[in-house]
Amino acid sequence: MKAVILAGGLGTRLAEETTVKPKPMAEIGGYPVLWHIMKIYSAHGIHDFIVCLGYKGYVIKEYFANYFLHVSDVTLDLANNQMEVHSVHAEPWRVTLVDTGERTQTGGRIKRILPYLNGDTEFCLTYGDGVADVDVAAVIEQHRSSNHIATVTAAQPPSRFGVLDHEGGRILSFREKPADGNWVSAGFFVLSPEIGKFIDGDDTIWESGPLEQLANAGQIGVHLHRGFWQPMDTLRDKLMLEKLWASGAPPWKIWQ
User: Fold this and answer.
1) Three-state DSSP state, 186
2) Cα gap 219→244, rounded to integer Å
3) Which of 39, 195, 248, 252 is the most exposed place for a label (fewest CB within 10 A)?
């Protein structure tokens, strides 16, 4: 099974990072958030990836082109232009990097990679800027047991602001960032290639037209995720994720 990752957007809300690289290459603990997402899928046995490139996609290509060298112990014989590999720490990944256009919308990017599925009857899809401890295997199983064309993972994001309890003109307690009760799409989809017929072309925004059509047709299921989920939209989000990684027990690190 393949996992498709949308990694082509401009990332304007994280301009501190994205002036020189695409947002999925912004790092958490020295590793691109894209790497963290791939590790989540890999922990569930999915090692075959299709990455949808756009804005500064060459940065992602160069990262994976040199990945084996970065994670291996080697001796370089410069005079003879030879390399001896001593120890390899690379993951068992197969990564297909597809230039889906710098200005292509999310739906258009998905449609462009459908030929690379090579006849697969289903595939995973997520965004290249969010991490979670989602049980990917459970989402896949739910999708397979239904007759839906699509299944989406939903999460309850915490409120941006803390809550205070008060009575009689005095504060009783503070509660930090409780969930506000609303469910939102957290990505981590499982889809049938049939979704292609709901996508017109490059200008199609996946989150509006196709998803709305699938919902109206009763063809999209939902997997409720009550664990950790956090997109990296802003510098504030990035710093929070960096702090969690530095703690030694980031909640999305489900791999060994």
Assistant:
1) coil
2) 37
3) 248
The two three-digit tokens of residue 23, written as one number: 């947002």
Quick one: which of 220, 212, 194 has its CA closest to 111?
Answer: 194
- List pLDDT tens digits, range 221-240: 999 999 999 999 999 999 99
| pLDDT mean over 73-94 | 94
Question: Residue 79 has what DSSP assignment?
Answer: T
Task: Please name the amino acid found at residue 49.
Answer: F
Q: CA-to-CA distance for 118 and 128, rounded, in angstroms?
A: 22
User: The tokens of 39 are what?
Assistant: 């590790």
Q: Residue 201 burial by CB count (10 A; 0-12/13-18/19+): exposed, middle or buried? A: exposed
According to DSSP, the residues that pair with 185 across neighbouring strands are 154
Q: Which of 105, 248, 233 is nearest to 157 (CA)?
A: 233
Looking at this protein, which amino acid is placed at residue 246? A
**Mean pLDDT (the chain, rounded):** 93
In the structure, how many helices (H) and strands (E) does the chain have?
A: 8, 16
Q: What's the number of CA atoms in the CB half-sphere (13 Å) around residue 184?
A: 12
CA neighbor of 18 nearest in space, from 52, 49, 54: 54
The pair of three-digit structure tokens given for residue 99, joined into one six-digit string = 């230039």
Buried b (16+ CB within 10 A) or exposed e, 49-65: bbbbbbbbbeebeebbe
Based on the number of CB atoms within 10 Å of its own CB, is 195 exposed (0-12), middle (13-18) or buried (19 or more)?
Answer: buried
Q: What pLDDT, on a 0 to 100 scale, did the predictor assign at position 168? A: 80
The answer to whether 235 and 14 are in contact (CB under 8 A) is yes
Tokens of 224: 């409720």
Q: Give the single-character DSSP code of 158.
A: B
